[in-house]
User: Which sequence fits this backbone?
């Protein structure tokens, strides 16, 4: 197990860093990213990347593993199960909106809806299910929607992501938009997502060990010590934007959904392990 000790001092790396190059296919991008991280962290098995920083540092992994006997999110997941199984006012439930009754489907999200020409995330699908059944939508970043999403993720643990990008202009454009967002610098600090999670993955920035791109969506929703509760991936996106002093975008807006699409495609072949805990 590699123990990262390097302090973040620059935004470069000795390896050839994947770039947001126009014209490459999604699968070429994914293979390039996987190969980059295999070379950067040769002691980390591919499937271990779902554990983020805990795959890189023995001390942090030991502390994290000590929490797993009594994970802080278990009551929220139980609440999510109860809400998922409770009928709407019209007598239907969430199960009526999802393939296989919503059980074991987390690995299929997000997907590109070829009729609506947009990316559909799990949280967006949950709220559209509510609205289609006459219920009010839930707030997207935390609370009930995080609990329901966490319960659904828990039924998919171990199932590998297999996100598809259909060979059509709108789907490829959504993927490309997400990719460009990931590699574009923003905010007063002029950082991109890739600045931390590609170029400097495994390095320390103050007390934070930066996790690799691979496997990040596998964990969500996550219970962060900083939050003291479960939160969705889009809550984390907004937090990262805040950290680099950029304006956060609306949760489940087109930009963040396309970003999730790209990021999750990069993790194809890795299993769902959420919900999970993070600092």
Assistant:
């Amino acid at each position: 197990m590699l123990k990262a000790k390097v302090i973040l001092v620059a935004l470069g790396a000795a390896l050839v860093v994947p770039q947001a190059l126009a014209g490459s296919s999604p699968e070429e991008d994914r293979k390039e990213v996987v190969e980059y991280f295999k070379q950067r962290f040769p002691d980390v098995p591919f499937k271990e990347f779902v554990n983020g920083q805990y795959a890189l540092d023995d001390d942090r992994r030991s502390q994290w593993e000590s929490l797993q006997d009594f994970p802080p999110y278990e009551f929220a997941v139980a609440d999510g199960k109860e809400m998922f199984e409770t009928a709407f006012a019209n007598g239907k439930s969430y199960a009526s909106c999802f393939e296989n009754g919503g059980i074991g489907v987390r690995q299929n999200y997000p997907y590109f809806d070829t009729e609506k020409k947009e990316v559909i995330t799990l949280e967006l699908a949950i709220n559209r299910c509510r609205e289609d059944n006459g219920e009010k939508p839930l707030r997207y970043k935390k609370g009930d929607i995080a609990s329901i999403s966490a319960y659904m993720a828990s039924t998919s643990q171990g199932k590998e992501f297999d996100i598809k990008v259909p060979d059509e202009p709108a789907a490829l454009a959504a993927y490309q938009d997400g990719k460009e967002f990931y590699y574009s610098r923003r905010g007063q600090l002029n950082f991109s997502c890739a600045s931390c999670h590609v170029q400097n993955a495994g390095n320390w920035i103050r007390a934070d060990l930066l996790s690799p791109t691979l496997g990040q969506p596998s964990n969500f929703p996550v219970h962060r010590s900083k939050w003291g509760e479960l939160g969705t991936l889009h809550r984390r996106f907004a937090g990262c934007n805040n950290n680099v002093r950029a304006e956060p975008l609306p949760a489940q807006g087109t930009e963040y959904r396309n970003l999730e699409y790209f990021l999750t495609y990069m993790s194809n072949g890795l299993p769902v392990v959420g919900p999970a805990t993070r600092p």
Summary: The CA atoms of residues 111 and 120 lie 5 Å apart.
